[in-house]
Amino acid sequence: MKFEWSLKEFSKVLAILSILSPFVNADESNPAIASADSAVVKLTSKDFESFMKENPLVLTEFFAPWCGHCKNLGPEYQEAADKLVERNIKLAQVDCTEEKDLCQSHGIRGYPSLKIFKGIDSEPEDYVGDRKSAAIVSYMIKQSLPAVLDVNSNDDFTEFIENSDDPVVVQVLPTKIKDKSINETFYNIAESLRNKFTFISTSNDEIIKNYKVESSKPKYLLFRPNEELSHYSELPKDAKLDEDTLKEFIQTESKPLFGEITGNTFQSYVEAKVPLAYYFYSDPKEKEEISNLITNLAKEYRGKINFVALDASKYGAHANNLNMKEEFPLFVIHDIEKNLKYGIDQEKNFESKSIEPFLKKFISGKIEPIVKSEPIPTKEEASQQAVVKLVGKTHEDYVNDKKKITLVKYYAPWCGHCKKLAPVFEELAQLIKDDDANKDKYVIADIDATLNDVPVEISGYPTLIMYSDSEPVVYKGARDLESLAKFIGYEIVPKSETESKKDSPRDEL
Ligand SMILES: *[C@@H]1O[C@H](CO)[C@@H](O)[C@H](O)[C@H]1NC(C)=O
Questions:
Q1: What's the pLDDT score for residue 2?
Q2: Which residues contact 137 (CB under 8 A, 6 or more apart)?
Q3: Fewest Cβ atoms nearer than 10 Å: which of 50, 369, 432, 470?
Q4: Per-residue pLDDT tens for 56-84?
Q5: Is 236:258 a contact under the CB 8 Å cutoff?
């Protein structure tokens, strides 16, 4: 089966990483509602539509006066509105405690919700930037500019790149090219990623010459902020020219060689899908000392592994998610697609010179992942149970056994629904165990997903999955004996035909 980065783990990590996010030092003494003399426009159902018709670009905050995050945002929002007035970019507010219908019609579920309106006819987009005045201003200015800048001189080209705070993605499109579909794709990508990148398109002869662009094929380049102009990335010549390839190129190449991971940057690393190598440091000096070494390795492994530093004094607990001990510094690689973790042995003192050989072995598949696992049950323990107890180290062997039908219950010890299901599950397992004709066809198993790594996406407990010779199937039905048996194709033989067999112990209701 395809491994998934577990949702549960993902949100857990995000929660850890956001502990020190800028939103925590909340100043909730500010009013959420803008003052009467500010540039923020208060909208109601009466004037909402006409206002959107008249104004080409509006950021709207749907809020409630009592909401803490709205109060934090209050002064920042007001300041941004004042700064954006002269550019004809409007900031508006809708009080959802008074405008229930209006808020409902925009699908507002939480406060504040910030949405960008470009006229009344197009779907509003979510604002996903920081909630600080400077961030709002630059985000909205970007929204007001075309998604792609058409550049016609080499001087402008260099100037844009040198002054951009974001990575710059460049399309060099020779005029002779007939098939312009890739150009359309480029513009579409730019539209969707404009908040995080600057996009440039050019057909300028000097640039074509400088970057050795063939007349028959466009070229795609990426420049990272604060790096030398000569140090850019180029989409490989033989790469396919389609949306996925271009997007992947942009996501991968835009990352700094050795960036810092925080609540804000975490998601983009996860989305990049490439294995993520962490260096946890507890003292900034440790990071400085290793920076050259890792930056050089990162150049070599660009596109194969991303490298980040993590401040263990803030987010050290994240080590646990990566199956490492909270002993720093440490170096660990998380293969995000397979959700496997590979760390440098913590039994020995950490030495930076072990990183390079470790990476080589990782790339050639010569290191074993660190799997979180309870001990494998002994034969004796196993023989006493009808439900087979799986652990991190044995899970794969069972679910990949295509000769059997294996039903696995993923549970957490604290979960009430799991406790309720337990006797039913036990009964099913016992029935099968006692059924000589079928006992070798089925495995009824469970695993404590809090104590073991399970490479399965689990969005709630209990999760039941059936593995067989076809794709795994997640069980969605009622949690009673008959339904479960039916799900795995097991026929419960009526009691009268099984007189020779013992009744399974069960209190009659
Ligand atoms: C590329 O596509 C955009 C958006 O459709 C269009 O405005 C532009 O003229 C195209 N450029 C070329 C060189 O075809």
A1: 32
A2: 80, 83, 84
A3: 470
A4: 999 999 999 999 999 999 999 999 999 99
A5: no
* Closest C-alpha to ligand 1, atom 10: 183
DSSP letter for each residue of 297-339: HHHHHTTT-EEEEEEHHHHTTHHHHTT--S-SSEEEEEETTTT
Segments of the chain scoring below 70 in pLDDT: 1-28, 495-509
Candidates 3.40.30.10, 3.30.70.1650, 3.40.50.2300, 3.40.50.2000; CATH matching 379-488: 3.40.30.10
Distance CA 146, CA 198 (A): 10
Q: What is the pLDDT of residues 185-227, one digit of tens each?
A: 999 999 888 888 999 999 999 999 999 999 989 999 999 987 7
The owner of tokens 């359309």 is 184
Please provide residue 299's backbone torsions phi and psi, each rounded to the nearest 5 degrees.
-65, -45
The pLDDT score that the predictor gives to residue 170 is: 97
Catalytic residues: 67, 70, 415, 418
Give SS3 for 99: coil
Mutate to test the pocket of ligand 1, among 180, 184, 185 (most ligand atoms within 8 A of CB): 180
Q: Can you tell me whether residue 172 is helix, strand or coil?
A: strand
CATH 3.40.30.10 fits 148-253, yes or no: yes
Q: Give the pLDDT of residue 227.
A: 79
Locate the DSSP E strands across 109-255. 113-117, 125-126, 148-151, 168-172, 198-202, 219-223, 233-234
Q: 148, 175, 176, 187: which to mutate for ligand 1, most atoms within 8 A of CB?
A: 187
Q: Could you say which DSSP state residue 489 is in?
A: T
Provide the token pair at 353. Answer: 């010179």
CA distance 296 to 302: 10
